[in-house]
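Example record used in the benchmark description.
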Amino acid sequence: MSSIRVEVLTARGDPQPWLAMRARLWPDCPAQDHLREAEDMLHDPARTGVAIAFLDGAPVGFIELTLRTDYVTGCDHSPVAFIEGLWTEPDARRQGVARALVAHAVQWARLRKVRELASDTQLDNLLSQATHQALGFTETERVVAYKITL
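Model output (C-alpha cells):
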C-alpha cells in the first residue's frame, strides 16, 4: 500500500518540486512569475500556505492556500480559506493525494479560526469539478465573466 505524506513548505524549504508542479498546473505562466508568486506565498505564512504531498517519498501534488478577506463567491463569512491551486501528478491520481491535501487545508483553516474553505475552477474543467465534488465541496455558483478593454 502506498504511503501519502503531506509537508508544509516554508521559506527555508526547497521550492523546486512545487515550482515544477506549479508550471504543469499553470503552463502559460512565465517561470519568473511562478518564482515571484512562490516567494510572496512563502514569506507570508500568516496569510498563505503551501503544502506538498509525497507518495512513497516522491513529490506528487501540492496545495496553495490563502486567507481572503474580500468577497468569495458563495461564502457567508470573512475571512475565507481559499484554495488557490491544487495539483496531483497524473500518475498519482485516484490514490488519495488530493484528499490528503484538502484535509491539510481544512486543518490549516481551522487553526486560523475561519469557518469556510472555498475554491474555484473553470467552467470547462470537468475533471476539477468532479474532484471538488468527490472531496465534499458544494457548488455555489456558475459565472461567465465579461470585460471591455479601454
